[in-house]
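Entry 14. Ran structure prediction on the chain below.
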Amino acid sequence: MANINTAAIITAGGLGKRFDGTGDTLPKQFIPLSGKPVIAYSILSFESSKLINEIAIVVPENWVEYTKTEIVDKFDIKKVSKVISGGDERQDSVKIGLRSLSKIPSIVVVHDGVRPLVTIQTIDEVITQAEKTGGAIAAIPATDTIKKSAPEHTIKNTLRRENIWFAQTPQAFRYEILKEAFEKASEDGYLGTDEAELVERLGKEVKLVKSSKYNIKITTPEDLELGEIFLASSLHRNKGN
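Output, C-alpha coordinates:
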Protein backbone atom coordinates (compact mmCIF):
# COMPACT_ATOMS: atom_id res chain seq x y z
CA MET A 1 0.00 0.00 0.00
CA ALA A 2 2.96 2.35 0.43
CA ASN A 3 2.99 3.22 -3.29
CA ILE A 4 -0.77 3.65 -3.60
CA ASN A 5 -1.78 7.26 -4.15
CA THR A 6 -4.81 7.87 -1.93
CA ALA A 7 -6.85 11.08 -1.82
CA ALA A 8 -9.41 11.93 0.84
CA ILE A 9 -12.48 14.09 0.37
CA ILE A 10 -13.91 15.37 3.63
CA THR A 11 -17.42 16.66 3.09
CA ALA A 12 -18.89 19.31 5.35
CA GLY A 13 -20.99 21.37 2.98
CA GLY A 14 -24.22 21.39 5.01
CA LEU A 15 -25.52 24.13 7.27
CA GLY A 16 -26.71 21.87 10.08
CA LYS A 17 -30.46 22.48 9.90
CA ARG A 18 -31.12 19.83 12.55
CA PHE A 19 -29.45 22.11 15.08
CA ASP A 20 -32.13 24.79 14.47
CA GLY A 21 -33.84 26.01 17.59
CA THR A 22 -30.89 25.23 19.87
CA GLY A 23 -29.47 28.75 19.84
CA ASP A 24 -26.42 27.70 17.84
CA THR A 25 -25.61 29.91 14.86
CA LEU A 26 -22.59 27.87 13.72
CA PRO A 27 -22.96 25.03 11.20
CA LYS A 28 -22.62 21.80 13.15
CA GLN A 29 -19.23 20.95 11.61
CA PHE A 30 -17.73 24.09 13.18
CA ILE A 31 -19.29 23.84 16.64
CA PRO A 32 -16.61 23.39 19.32
CA LEU A 33 -16.13 19.87 20.62
CA SER A 34 -13.73 19.72 23.58
CA GLY A 35 -12.12 22.95 22.39
CA LYS A 36 -11.77 22.19 18.66
CA PRO A 37 -14.25 22.50 15.77
CA VAL A 38 -15.99 19.19 15.07
CA ILE A 39 -14.50 18.94 11.57
CA ALA A 40 -10.95 19.45 12.84
CA TYR A 41 -10.89 15.99 14.42
CA SER A 42 -11.64 14.22 11.12
CA ILE A 43 -9.08 16.27 9.22
CA LEU A 44 -6.39 15.57 11.81
CA SER A 45 -7.09 11.82 11.70
CA PHE A 46 -6.71 11.74 7.92
CA GLU A 47 -3.60 13.90 8.18
CA SER A 48 -2.10 11.33 10.54
CA SER A 49 -2.82 8.31 8.32
CA LYS A 50 0.28 7.20 6.44
CA LEU A 51 -1.93 5.98 3.59
CA ILE A 52 -3.29 9.45 2.78
CA ASN A 53 -1.43 11.62 0.27
CA GLU A 54 -3.90 14.44 -0.30
CA ILE A 55 -6.98 15.90 1.39
CA ALA A 56 -9.69 18.06 -0.18
CA ILE A 57 -12.18 19.68 2.19
CA VAL A 58 -15.63 20.75 1.01
CA VAL A 59 -17.43 23.33 3.17
CA PRO A 60 -20.14 25.99 2.79
CA GLU A 61 -18.98 28.92 0.65
CA ASN A 62 -18.88 31.39 3.56
CA TRP A 63 -16.68 29.05 5.58
CA VAL A 64 -13.86 28.43 3.12
CA GLU A 65 -11.53 31.10 4.52
CA TYR A 66 -12.32 30.19 8.11
CA THR A 67 -11.45 26.56 7.40
CA LYS A 68 -8.16 27.56 5.81
CA THR A 69 -7.04 29.91 8.58
CA GLU A 70 -8.66 28.57 11.74
CA ILE A 71 -8.27 24.86 11.05
CA VAL A 72 -5.75 24.03 8.29
CA ASP A 73 -3.23 26.76 9.21
CA LYS A 74 -3.89 26.77 12.95
CA PHE A 75 -3.35 23.03 13.32
CA ASP A 76 -0.48 22.98 10.79
CA ILE A 77 -2.17 20.47 8.48
CA LYS A 78 0.09 19.71 5.51
CA LYS A 79 -1.87 17.29 3.32
CA VAL A 80 -4.79 19.60 2.52
CA SER A 81 -4.52 20.64 -1.13
CA LYS A 82 -7.89 22.38 -1.49
CA VAL A 83 -10.61 23.92 0.64
CA ILE A 84 -13.58 24.54 -1.62
CA SER A 85 -17.28 25.35 -1.43
CA GLY A 86 -19.77 22.51 -1.85
CA GLY A 87 -22.96 21.95 -3.80
CA ASP A 88 -26.62 21.73 -2.85
CA GLU A 89 -26.44 18.00 -2.07
CA ARG A 90 -23.76 15.79 -0.56
CA GLN A 91 -23.43 14.05 -3.94
CA ASP A 92 -22.67 17.40 -5.58
CA SER A 93 -20.07 18.20 -2.94
CA VAL A 94 -18.24 14.91 -3.42
CA LYS A 95 -18.26 15.43 -7.19
CA ILE A 96 -16.75 18.90 -6.70
CA GLY A 97 -14.15 17.38 -4.39
CA LEU A 98 -13.24 14.76 -6.98
CA ARG A 99 -12.70 17.41 -9.63
CA SER A 100 -10.53 19.48 -7.30
CA LEU A 101 -7.87 16.83 -6.65
CA SER A 102 -4.39 17.84 -7.77
CA LYS A 103 -3.84 14.55 -9.61
CA ILE A 104 -5.77 11.37 -10.32
CA PRO A 105 -5.35 9.03 -7.33
CA SER A 106 -5.55 5.25 -7.22
CA ILE A 107 -7.97 5.30 -4.27
CA VAL A 108 -10.48 7.94 -3.18
CA VAL A 109 -11.81 7.87 0.36
CA VAL A 110 -14.82 9.99 1.32
CA HIS A 111 -15.63 10.95 4.89
CA ASP A 112 -18.33 12.99 6.64
CA GLY A 113 -16.73 15.96 8.39
CA VAL A 114 -19.28 15.54 11.19
CA ARG A 115 -17.92 12.11 12.15
CA PRO A 116 -15.13 13.44 14.38
CA LEU A 117 -14.23 10.22 16.20
CA VAL A 118 -13.08 8.17 13.21
CA THR A 119 -9.85 6.38 14.02
CA ILE A 120 -6.73 6.06 11.89
CA GLN A 121 -7.16 2.29 12.16
CA THR A 122 -10.61 2.44 10.55
CA ILE A 123 -9.38 4.80 7.81
CA ASP A 124 -6.48 2.49 6.95
CA GLU A 125 -8.57 -0.70 7.04
CA VAL A 126 -11.18 0.73 4.66
CA ILE A 127 -8.51 1.97 2.24
CA THR A 128 -6.64 -1.36 2.33
CA GLN A 129 -9.82 -3.31 1.61
CA ALA A 130 -10.80 -0.95 -1.23
CA GLU A 131 -7.39 -1.42 -2.83
CA LYS A 132 -7.94 -5.19 -2.78
CA THR A 133 -11.58 -5.35 -3.90
CA GLY A 134 -12.44 -2.02 -5.52
CA GLY A 135 -14.68 -0.63 -2.81
CA ALA A 136 -15.23 -0.76 0.95
CA ILE A 137 -17.09 1.16 3.63
CA ALA A 138 -16.99 1.43 7.41
CA ALA A 139 -20.12 -0.03 8.98
CA ILE A 140 -21.39 -1.65 12.16
CA PRO A 141 -23.60 -4.75 12.40
CA ALA A 142 -27.06 -4.29 13.88
CA THR A 143 -27.42 -5.44 17.47
CA ASP A 144 -31.05 -4.45 18.01
CA THR A 145 -34.07 -6.13 16.47
CA ILE A 146 -35.01 -4.24 13.28
CA LYS A 147 -38.66 -3.63 12.40
CA LYS A 148 -39.89 -2.52 8.99
CA SER A 149 -42.73 -0.03 9.29
CA ALA A 150 -45.94 0.25 7.31
CA PRO A 151 -47.06 3.79 6.33
CA GLU A 152 -49.22 4.04 9.45
CA HIS A 153 -46.17 3.39 11.68
CA THR A 154 -47.28 -0.13 12.47
CA ILE A 155 -44.91 -3.07 12.13
CA LYS A 156 -44.94 -4.59 8.66
CA ASN A 157 -42.37 -7.28 9.38
CA THR A 158 -39.19 -8.07 11.31
CA LEU A 159 -35.88 -8.07 9.45
CA ARG A 160 -33.13 -10.57 10.17
CA ARG A 161 -30.53 -8.46 11.92
CA GLU A 162 -27.70 -10.85 10.97
CA ASN A 163 -27.89 -9.30 7.49
CA ILE A 164 -28.30 -5.66 8.60
CA TRP A 165 -25.37 -3.24 8.86
CA PHE A 166 -25.45 0.47 9.62
CA ALA A 167 -23.38 2.34 7.04
CA GLN A 168 -20.84 4.92 8.17
CA THR A 169 -17.92 6.70 6.58
CA PRO A 170 -15.11 6.54 5.53
CA GLN A 171 -16.05 4.95 2.22
CA ALA A 172 -13.21 4.18 -0.19
CA PHE A 173 -13.13 3.14 -3.85
CA ARG A 174 -10.75 2.83 -6.74
CA TYR A 175 -10.84 6.15 -8.55
CA GLU A 176 -12.10 4.78 -11.86
CA ILE A 177 -14.99 2.96 -10.16
CA LEU A 178 -16.13 6.02 -8.22
CA LYS A 179 -15.79 8.25 -11.29
CA GLU A 180 -17.93 5.84 -13.33
CA ALA A 181 -20.51 5.68 -10.54
CA PHE A 182 -20.86 9.46 -10.45
CA GLU A 183 -21.06 9.70 -14.24
CA LYS A 184 -23.80 7.05 -14.33
CA ALA A 185 -25.77 8.78 -11.56
CA SER A 186 -25.49 12.09 -13.41
CA GLU A 187 -26.71 10.55 -16.66
CA ASP A 188 -29.69 8.97 -14.90
CA GLY A 189 -30.49 12.00 -12.72
CA TYR A 190 -30.09 9.71 -9.71
CA LEU A 191 -29.46 11.05 -6.20
CA GLY A 192 -28.03 8.51 -3.77
CA THR A 193 -27.62 8.64 -0.01
CA ASP A 194 -23.93 7.74 -0.10
CA GLU A 195 -21.12 6.79 -2.48
CA ALA A 196 -21.62 3.07 -1.89
CA GLU A 197 -25.15 3.27 -3.25
CA LEU A 198 -23.88 4.83 -6.47
CA VAL A 199 -21.25 2.11 -6.85
CA GLU A 200 -23.82 -0.60 -6.08
CA ARG A 201 -25.84 0.66 -9.07
CA LEU A 202 -22.93 -0.38 -11.30
CA GLY A 203 -23.21 -3.95 -10.03
CA LYS A 204 -19.86 -3.64 -8.23
CA GLU A 205 -19.05 -5.37 -4.98
CA VAL A 206 -18.58 -3.16 -1.92
CA LYS A 207 -17.04 -4.72 1.18
CA LEU A 208 -18.20 -3.97 4.72
CA VAL A 209 -15.41 -3.17 7.17
CA LYS A 210 -16.45 -3.45 10.81
CA SER A 211 -16.13 -0.07 12.48
CA SER A 212 -17.00 1.21 15.95
CA LYS A 213 -20.04 2.72 17.65
CA TYR A 214 -17.74 5.57 18.64
CA ASN A 215 -17.71 6.68 14.99
CA ILE A 216 -20.87 8.73 15.50
CA LYS A 217 -22.31 11.38 13.20
CA ILE A 218 -22.99 14.73 14.86
CA THR A 219 -26.50 15.69 13.75
CA THR A 220 -28.20 16.78 16.99
CA PRO A 221 -27.16 18.51 20.23
CA GLU A 222 -27.43 15.13 21.96
CA ASP A 223 -24.79 13.75 19.58
CA LEU A 224 -22.50 16.61 20.58
CA GLU A 225 -22.89 15.68 24.24
CA LEU A 226 -22.19 12.05 23.39
CA GLY A 227 -19.07 13.11 21.49
CA GLU A 228 -17.77 14.90 24.57
CA ILE A 229 -18.28 11.75 26.62
CA PHE A 230 -16.56 9.54 24.05
CA LEU A 231 -13.59 11.90 23.72
CA ALA A 232 -13.09 11.68 27.47
CA SER A 233 -13.32 7.89 27.40
CA SER A 234 -10.16 5.82 27.63
CA LEU A 235 -11.92 3.18 25.48
CA HIS A 236 -12.06 5.60 22.53
CA ARG A 237 -8.44 6.64 23.01
CA ASN A 238 -7.45 2.99 22.72
CA LYS A 239 -9.28 2.53 19.40
CA GLY A 240 -6.46 3.73 17.16
CA ASN A 241 -6.10 7.50 17.54
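The CA atoms of residues 34 and 228 lie 6 Å apart. Will compare against last week's run tomorrow.
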